[in-house]
């Protein structure tokens, strides 16, 4: 560790590290050890972060010396916890203001990404510690890409190989019918478990019927087997639920075909299956009663996904449950937000419909704040896990990829508003 002698005008303590596991983690530990003696805006920089460094040839995309990596601490004790999004706004706008001095077309993808044109160049992770109803400490971590791409082609190939591995495992376990149930979302679970437990992959090449011109690579390990089973029980319960709601005999027939596989998985993972069945029961009950408690309803998905994320009951189980809990709540809230207008028109159950709101802007702000809060907690759990392998891929998903749906919805809303404005102008001309 060294104290930077430059710039001479830097008004706050500046700690320069050649490398560390995480600048956020470093300054957090420093604050825990020294307490109040760590001054506000104390800043930690690093040339390289080893927390993203993979093993067996897998590397974190923040190459040494090619990025600005730093974290700083604030003590906004006056700020209510429910207004934590203000911190994201301040940090993001400040960085944008500085980047605007060097380039045009800098934009913010709320809450934590900054783009140049269509390329992500900056990610922000804000971790808050609460003191009662207020924020006692805020650590803001910033990574600005200067001479490096967001995610390498190699990393994309790795993620695709795990996806193909899941597809192949479903085929092995259940035949073609298993492949028909393939969920892209379960690939994240495979990569997460592989990174946490540093599992050895079996690498195979195969010809995919959908892409017959080129050989595909598949990575398969213990986590792939687990994810394939979770993929099936989730699909089974969704088909069963659709049959109950829609009385679709096609889906009922599919459920019957999967009965044997479902029974097999029940004996292997009774805890996870029990959690899923309980989730389906409670969710149906909430919908029937038109439950208005948004936190309660979203929490049902969180509890279920928490059990699924908890593969092994070991020293990491509670952190994995917590990660899954907040990710599940995020997924539920995102689904509810996406379906809000359609459900309102069709008079279908959606807890967001029962919210009291003054205008659409207030509603969108509230939903964004909720989603940000859920993903922030999810990110905290992830950063507490000792994951080195594939950390770059996982961070990219958690800090950027999960927001792609939200961005699409905002773009769609914007286009609809533009069409309405255009029609009004045309009507006035007539």
Topology (elements, then pairings):
Blueprint lengths: L1 E2 L10 E7 L2 H12 L8 E7 L17 E8 L10 H15 L6 E4 L3 E4 L2 E13 L2 E12 L7 H22 L1 H4 L5 H13 L4 E7 L2 E10 L1 H25 L2 H20 L1 H19 L5 H16 L7 H30 L13 H25 L6 H9 L4 H26 L1
Helix pairs in contact: 3-5, 3-6, 5-6, 5-12, 6-7, 6-8, 7-8, 8-9, 9-10, 10-11
Protein described:
Helix content is 55%, strand content 17%. The chain has 430 residues and is α+β, with helices and mostly antiparallel strands. It has two domains: 149 residues, Bira Bifunctional Protein, Domain 2 (BirA Bifunctional Protein, domain 2, 2-Layer Sandwich), CATH 3.30.930; 264 residues, Farnesyl Diphosphate Synthase (Orthogonal Bundle). The strands form two sheets. It has an eight-stranded mixed beta sheet, sandwiched between helices. Strands 9-10 form a two-stranded antiparallel ribbon. The longest helix is centred in the C-terminal third of the chain and has 30 residues. The chain is globular, with a radius of gyration of 24 Å.
């Amino acid at each position: 560790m060294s104290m930077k002698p430059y710039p001479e005008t830097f008004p706050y303590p500046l700690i320069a590290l050649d490398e560390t596991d995480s600048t956020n983690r470093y300054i957090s530990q420093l604050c825990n050890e020294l307490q109040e003696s760590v001054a506000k805006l104390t800043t930690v920089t690093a040339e390289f972060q080893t927390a993203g460094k993979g093993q067996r040839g897998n590397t974190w995309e923040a190459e040494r010396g090619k990025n600005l990596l730093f974290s700083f601490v604030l003590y906004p004790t006056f700020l209510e916890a429910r207004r934590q999004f203000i911190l994201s706004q301040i940090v993001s706008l400040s960085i944008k203001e500085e980047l605007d001095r060097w380039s045009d077309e800098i934009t913010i993808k709320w809450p934590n990404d900054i783009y140049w044109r269509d390329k992500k160049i900056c990610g922000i992770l804000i971790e808050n510690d609460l003191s009662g109803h207020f924020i006692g400490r805020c650590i803001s971590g910033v990574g600005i890409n200067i001479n490096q791409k967001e995610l390498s082609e190699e990393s994309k190939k790795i993620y695709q190989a795990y996806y193909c591995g899941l597809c192949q495992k479903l085929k092995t376990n259940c035949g073609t019918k298993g492949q028909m149930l393939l969920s892209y979302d379960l690939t994240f679970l495979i990569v997460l478990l592989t990174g946490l437990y540093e599992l050895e992959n079996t690498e195979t090449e195969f010809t995919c019927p959908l892409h017959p011109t080129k050989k595909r690579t598949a990575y398969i390990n213990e986590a792939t087997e687990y994810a394939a089973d979770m993929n099936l029980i989730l699909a089974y319960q969704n088909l069963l639920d659709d049959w109950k709601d829609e009385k679709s005999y096609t889906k009922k027939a599919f459920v019957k075909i999967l009965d044997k596989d479902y029974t097999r998985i029940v004996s292997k993972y009774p805890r996870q299956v029990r959690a899923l069945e309980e989730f389906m029961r409670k969710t149906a009950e909430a919908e029937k009663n038109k439950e208005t408690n948004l936190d309660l309803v979203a929490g049902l998905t969180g509890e279920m996904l928490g059990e699924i994320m908890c593969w092994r009951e070991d020293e990491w189980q509670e952190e994995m449950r917590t990660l899954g809990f907040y990710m599940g709540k995020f997924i539920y809230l995102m689904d509810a937000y996406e379906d809000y207008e359609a459900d309102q028109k069709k008079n279908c159950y959606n807890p967001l419909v029962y919210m009291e709101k003054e205008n659409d802007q207030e509603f969108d702000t509230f939903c964004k704040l909720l989603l940000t809060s859920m993903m922030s907690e999810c990110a905290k759990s992830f950063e507490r896990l000792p994951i080195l392998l594939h950390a770059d891929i996982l961070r990219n998903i958690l800090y950027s990829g999960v927001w792609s749906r939200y961005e699409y919805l905002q773009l769609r809303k914007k286009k609809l508003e533009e069409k309405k404005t255009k029609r009004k102008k045309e009507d006035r001309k007539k």
